[in-house]
Amino acid sequence: MTAEQTATTPTTPAPGTGPTPSTSSPPGSGEVVLVTGASSGIGRATAVLFAERGASLVLVARSESTLEAAAAECRAAGARAVQVAPVDVLDRAGVQAAVDTATGTFGRLDVVVHAATVMAYGRLEELDPDVFERVVDTALHGTNNLVKAVIPVFRRQERGSMIVVSSLLASITAPTMGAYVAAKWGQLGMIRTLQQELRELPHVQVSAVAPGGTTTPIYDQAATVLGNTGHPPPPVYTPERVARAIVDRVANPRRLKQSGFTNPVIIAGFRLFPPVFDALVGPLLKVFGMSRDPMPATTGNVFAPVPEKEATRGKYWGI
Question: What are 73-108's pLDDT values in tens digits?
């Protein structure tokens, strides 16, 4: 792994200490924040929002070129310092090195946002097993790699905040989304377990934020065997809106925050009226969640990044 300094290196504080923001500093000024999935979508929007608070950032993603673009955007937004780590979250040693970069350079690690994910469309019987496994592995092993690197730091500091970007699909199911559903259900189970395991550390907080449909490039980058990809189902939110919910979890941690005002209604329908939900979810997804542009079978960005499709926002309008 490489980690390149992209701003003037600040004076390194002693471990567990750091500058105290003045009364004129913006909220959160001086935070040390690591963001995975920082080159695109919700991760990138969140990195920029922390930059606006004056944070020092370590940005993690697979694509070095778009990661550098995200770093430049964060510097322009007001970040105190930015480093990039072109790493796949499935690379355990690379993830550890990125965390070591944060603590070694800035003396501590205050916040970790885990937004790295990949997605695939296809019936379970038709989806390539390697694609299915990679989607699930990215969520489960990727999250576990980050936990193994981050939580020991938080234990030593006796403080820290980890926010994982979950999904509405961690609480419901949908046909042709089985790989992503399995990934997100499993990831949320890990996070809830971690929350229980850290109860003895009152200043170490782990939160999950579950967006509904969000206008990011993940839909265009997804693997598919359906002859088309998807698009965010309405209501569609901007990644910046979800980023605000993520940043708010630092001061207001939650076990699981639904970022979408229809999410609780959809979840209630899934749990309370399963026959009705099962009858409706397929047709509704086909009408409101599937693109009509033809797309040959593709593995998308599941195995490797597609830098030309990475950006903060996707092509759909959001609120």
Answer: 999 999 999 999 999 999 999 999 999 999 999 999
Per-residue pLDDT tens for 23-45? Answer: 233 455 589 999 999 999 999 99
Output 68-73 pairs: Cβ under 8 A, ≥24 positions apart.
68/6, 69/39, 70/38, 70/39, 70/40, 70/44, 71/6, 72/6, 73/44, 73/48
What does DSSP assign to residue 81? Answer: E
Strands annotated E in the chain: 4-5, 32-36, 56-61, 81-86, 111-114, 120-121, 160-165, 204-211, 223-224, 257-259
Q: Report domain extents, the chain.
A: 28-309
Contact 122, 223 (CB under 8 A): yes
CATH number at 28-309:
3.40.50.720
Is 190:143 a contact under the CB 8 Å cutoff?
Answer: yes
Residues carrying an active site annotation: 180
Work out the number of other CB atoms within 10 angstroms of the CB of residue 117.
24
Cβ-proximal residues to 130 (8 Å cutoff; 6+ apart), any chain: none
Task: Return the amino acid letter for 41.
Answer: G
At residue 211, φ and ψ (nearest 5 deg) are -75, 155
Cis peptide before 152 (omega within 30 of 0): no
Q: What is the DSSP letter of 214?
A: B
**Residue 154, token pair as written in the block:** 């938080």
Task: Please state whether 41 falls in left (phi above 0), alpha (psi between -120 and 50) or beta.
Answer: left
pLDDT in tens, 139-161: 999 999 999 999 999 999 999 99
Alpha-carbon distance of 101 to 151, in angstroms, equals 15
